[in-house]
Amino acid sequence: MIMNAQPSLRQQLLRLPIFYKILLANSVIVGLGAIAGTIITVWFAGHYPHESRYALIAFFVTAGIIISFIVNKWVLEQALNPLLRLQEAVDQVRQGQSGVRISLGAVSDEQFDRLAETFNQMLSEHEQHAQTMERLPRQILQAQEEERQRLARELHDEAAQALTSLLVHLRLLEREHDPQKAQQYLQELRDLTGQALEEVRRVALDLRPTILDDLGLGAALEWRVDEFSRANDVQTTVQIGGLGRRLPRDSELVFYRVGQESLSNIARHAKAHQVSVSLNRADDVITLEITDDGRGFNLANGFTNTPRGLGLLGMRERMAMINGYLIVESQPGQGTRIFAQAPL
After folding, report:
1. Closest CA to 296 of 333, 328, 326, 268
2. How many CB atoms lie within 10 A of CB 251?
3. Which whole-number Å values give the CA distances from 314 to 221, 260, 326, in the listed order?
4. How far is CA 343 from CA 220, 287, 333, in A?
5. Rounded CA gap, 12 and 146, in Å?
6. What is the C-alpha separation between 114 and 131, in angstroms, rounded?
7. Fewest Cβ atoms nearer than 10 Å: which of 16, 68, 86, 194?
8. Which three-class secondary structure state does DSSP give residue 95?
9. Which alpha helices (H) appear in the chain, and where do they start and end?
10. Is 296 in contact with 269 (CB distance < 8 Å)?
11. Which residues pair with 227 in a beta bridge?
12. pTM higher than the cut 0.70
């Protein structure tokens, strides 16, 4: 069994907090000066009883000042060296250098070690945030283009085809002289018109559901879950509690968008069979939890490096707008849990 080497007495003393370093150094100086001064004074008085002692006193005062200055200077240099390193690192960061880290060595005291650790952690988080912000504009543009393509595809595949059929049936109706067939074409025109209106309504509701403004978050979220269940053939359960009165408009919109984006991610990536949605309000805190039994993903890759990355990042940013937070729990093959909470 290998034992860790014990630090030497010098290392233990140098790792003391700066207050105790200075206090100990001055105590040693005063103690040694008192002992040495007493011994020399007694010896001098015994051997030279008739000589003047003022010169000896002046010598002790001068020597004490010099020794105190030298010792305190050395102690302060050793104690404040970590602060000098910290200042150098701060200057490097202000000049725009990246990858700056502080290493204080083995003689720094615990307080400076905690300060350096916090500083290094802040730099790491800042660099990660900067990298995320560099990738974010490109990903936002990509998300915008994907959303535009989705809307264009839905309008073309559904509404545009229905409108094209309307034009065809109108031309047939213009040429038809048989009243019975004309009546049949009119009925088909009504059906096609209703279909086109329904598709346009569905696309508009995806962009901004009127039910959210009219009936509130609970009803809008239930409607969204029903739409998701029908479109993806996924078994879903929804539980809503504590929404006795309307929530603030901003909170309703944020939580609805978080739920919408979560369900959209599940539909696109999760391949889930069961989805659970829970929305609750208690003690002026609203909580939204969405879980699925899909294939999950590796959180270690970071939000922006996963197929769901930009959506999750947007959800987190939305929650921050209302002083809330978002927790994502997922592992490959073990589903995903989205937990959002914010005060009202």
Report:
1. 333
2. 20
3. 19, 12, 10
4. 20, 9, 33
5. 62
6. 26
7. 194
8. coil
9. 9-14, 18-47, 54-94, 110-154, 161-175, 179-207, 210-215, 217-232, 249-265, 309-321
10. no
11. none
12. no
For residue 120 the two structure tokens come to 């290094």
Burial class (CB in 10 A: 0-12, 13-18, 19+), 228: buried
Q: Is 238 helix (H, G, I), strand (E, B) or coil?
A: strand
Residue 256, class by beta-carbon neighbours within 10 Å (0-12 exposed, 13-18 middle, 19+ buried)? buried
Would you state the structure tokens that stand for residue 336, as one six-digit string?
């995903």
Give CA–CA dist 173/158, Å, rounded.
Answer: 22
As a whole number of Å, the end-to-end CA separation of the chain is: 57
Length in residues, the chain: 344
What's the one-letter identity of residue 118?
T
Mean pLDDT of the chain: 78
Give the tokens for residue 113.
């070690």
Q: Which two tokens stand for residue 55?
A: 């010169």
Task: Scan for tokens 């929305």, then name that residue.
Answer: 279
| Structure confidence at residue 18 as a pLDDT band (50, 70, 90) | low
Average pLDDT over residues 310-324: 83
The DSSP symbol for 294 reads: S
Interatomic CA distance for residues 46 and 48, integer angstroms: 6
Q: How confident is the model at residue 308 (pLDDT cuts 50, 70, 90)?
A: low
